[in-house]
Amino acid sequence: MAKKSLEICFSPAVFEAHADKEAIVVVIDVLRATSSICTAFANGAVEIIPVGSVEDAREMKSKGYLLAAERDGFVLGFADFGNSPFNFSPEKVRGKTVAYSTTNGTGIIKMAAESHDVVIGSYLNFSSLCNWLIKQDRKVLIVCAGWKDRFSLEDTICAGAFAERLINDGGFSTICDAVKASLDLWGLARKDLRGYIEKAAQRSRLRDKGLDDCIDYCHTFDVTAVIPVLRNGILTIL
Ligand code: MLT
């Protein structure tokens, strides 16, 4: 496979089919995990520890960690706060280590840990991450967190935006149909990204739970230059 090749994985359920220890994995979970992680670091968080199960999250809390945790969008009863990017305010996270557990995002971050690098992608850190990826001269695998192993529109469209920039400005090449499909979806959605996202299932889920105040924010380009990266199982910034 060419050095600067690009692939997209639509769901954690097929990650093994794409997994490559030589690749840089970009995890995307627009609504809301990777948007929240970028916001937390932009607001001064020092470390974020991805935690898999609810039991492990409870144990981290019992050990005294500040805990952000949700399932199906709802904050876990024993957590300090949930997964809205607006929860990760400077007052709450500046200078802190946050234990973090979500329905989809944290699971795929941990699943990809054997890759050459795991970095966190969103619209919020889009350009800084693209510029860094282009400089790495290494295969990139963009992984969509999806929803409970299902395809998600919002993650795939964002992956398409990254693919377009990496191919047009970074000399990446691809023989991956998931990349082609993502580029087409991004081409459709870019004319009115916010309007197109109205179709997304996660958009409806968050509305139905009264958690959709962050949709516009999570679809804003280049709010921060932070590039969260996984080092020894812990997220810090490059
Ligand atoms: C996740 O990681 O599962 C999602 O971001 C879920 C959410 O934030 O509602």
Describe the structure.
The chain has 11 helices and 10 strands. It has helices at 15-18, 33-42, 54-62, 90-93, 105-111, 126-136, 153-170, 177-189, 193-196, 201-208, 215-218; strands at 6-9, 24-28, 47-50, 66-71, 74-75, 97-101, 117-121, 140-144, 228-231, 234-237. A 4-stranded parallel sheet has the order 1-8-2-7, with helices on both faces. The chain has a 4-stranded mixed sheet with strand order 3-6-4-5. A two-stranded antiparallel ribbon has the order 9-10. Strand 9 and strand 10 (234-237) form a beta hairpin. The longest helix is centred in the last third of the chain and has 18 residues, at 153-170. It is globular, with a radius of gyration of 16 Å. It binds D-malate. D-malate (MLT) binds next to loops.
Kindly summarize this structure in a few lines.
The protein has 238 residues and is an alpha/beta fold. The chain has helices at residues 15-18, 33-42, 54-62, 90-93, 105-111, 126-136, 153-170, 177-189, 193-196, 201-208, 215-218, and strands at 6-9, 24-28, 47-50, 66-71, 74-75, 97-101, 117-121, 140-144, 228-231, 234-237.
Describe the protein's topology.
Blueprint: E1 6-9, H1 15-18, E2 24-28, H2 33-42, E3 47-50, H3 54-62, E4 66-71, E5 74-75, H4 90-93, E6 97-101, H5 105-111, E7 117-121, H6 126-136, E8 140-144, H7 153-170, H8 177-189, H9 193-196, H10 201-208, H11 215-218, E9 228-231, E10 234-237
Parallel strand pairs: 1-8, 2-7, 2-8, 3-6, 4-6
Antiparallel strand pairs: 4-5, 9-10
Helix pairs in contact: 6-7, 7-8
Bound molecules: D-malate.
